[in-house]
From TrEMBL:
<keyword id="KW-0285">Flavoprotein</keyword>
<dbReference type="Pfam" id="PF00724">
    <property type="entry name" value="Oxidored_FMN"/>
</dbReference>
<dbReference type="InterPro" id="IPR001155">
    <property type="entry name" value="OxRdtase_FMN_N"/>
</dbReference>
<dbReference type="GO" id="GO:0010181">
    <property type="term" value="F:FMN binding"/>
</dbReference>
<dbReference type="GO" id="GO:0016491">
    <property type="term" value="F:oxidoreductase activity"/>
</dbReference>
<feature type="domain" description="NADH:flavin oxidoreductase/NADH oxidase N-terminal">
    <location>
        <begin position="16"/>
        <end position="347"/>
    </location>
</feature>
<dbReference type="InterPro" id="IPR051799">
    <property type="entry name" value="NADH_flavin_oxidoreductase"/>
</dbReference>
<keyword id="KW-0560">Oxidoreductase</keyword>
<protein>
    <submittedName>
        <fullName>NADH:flavin oxidoreductase</fullName>
    </submittedName>
</protein>
<dbReference type="InterPro" id="IPR013785">
    <property type="entry name" value="Aldolase_TIM"/>
</dbReference>
Amino acid sequence: MNAHSTVTSPVLTGTTLKGLTLANRLSVAPMTRISATIAGVPTERMARYYQRFAKGGFSLLTTEGIYPDKAYAQTYKDQPGLADREQAEGWKRIVDAVHAAGGRIFAQLMHGGALAQGNPFRSDTIAPSALRPRGQQMVSYYGAGLYAVPREMDEADVAEAILGFAQSATLAIEVAGFDGIEIHGANGYLLDQFFTDYTNRRQDRWGGDIGKRLGLSLAVLNAVRSAVGDAVPVGIRLSQGKVNDNKHKWTEGEEGAAIVFKALAASPADFVHLTEFEAWQPAFSAGGRSLVTLARQHAPDLFVIANGGLHDMARAEQVLQAGADMIALGRGALANPDWPRIAAGKREARPLELEMLSPISDIKDGELQL
């Protein structure tokens, strides 16, 4: 924290999203913590982990990526699901704990596609095209070696994936009681595989230019909106970098970004959650605009959540000024689950201790207390 932090900072003022009142503009970014049971049911440890962020003053939490079906969606060993009632009731205990502490919580629904490295339901993987993903499996999530070559999805596979998102969203709202839904369209997972030029070589309606490659994400947004109704906040997370290719940039640059954000503005999405390594930086070239600024320009009515290196108050304020409505903290929140209270009191934040995330990125005992 620095001297720029004050109790009157816009970061600490309230806002609303689709009628949902939020006490400040600070949220917890989704972070994969693989601490569910083998059956994908959330645990008491997870409930305490999430509740501490609400106790610490964060007004909104977004869960780690949750797999929505028992086909090809699960990505990591011990990842939680929202594919059956038992899993949904496990999440209800977490939602209730967060609400009891004064917070709101969105379910992030995620399909791993070609990056699946720990799916007990299938021995193979699927993707838009039969191309081996770049990089290697993530060791901190029990992975080893190269990714498998996925099978190219046919129309039945696509329909099954869309249906999984919709059914999972219904469980999230009707059984678990979540306050909203975030579709994971970022970081190299299935929807991002369809969106990315080099992972999507399809010649059908799901491939082509950047607008067409966004098509599956839009189809999922439409299906989820139909499933949960008009009153529930629904949005999507987008990125350029991926867990297996963190330097990637959208090859269409600012022109492509304009197409994407205009399409989202015309979609049922209420918000877009943008994650970059440093959210304030030009998205494509020196002197250019950030993704946040481009989103605000081309989708003026969308609620914009920004994530990426914003645990410094001055940077957070800069990104709000650039057009974001809310700031999402990842590493900063892990080290400081009470970051909003630290900011309000103008105290110094704690540094992130990397051993929290090693050798496996599960929830550690030390993370369960404020």
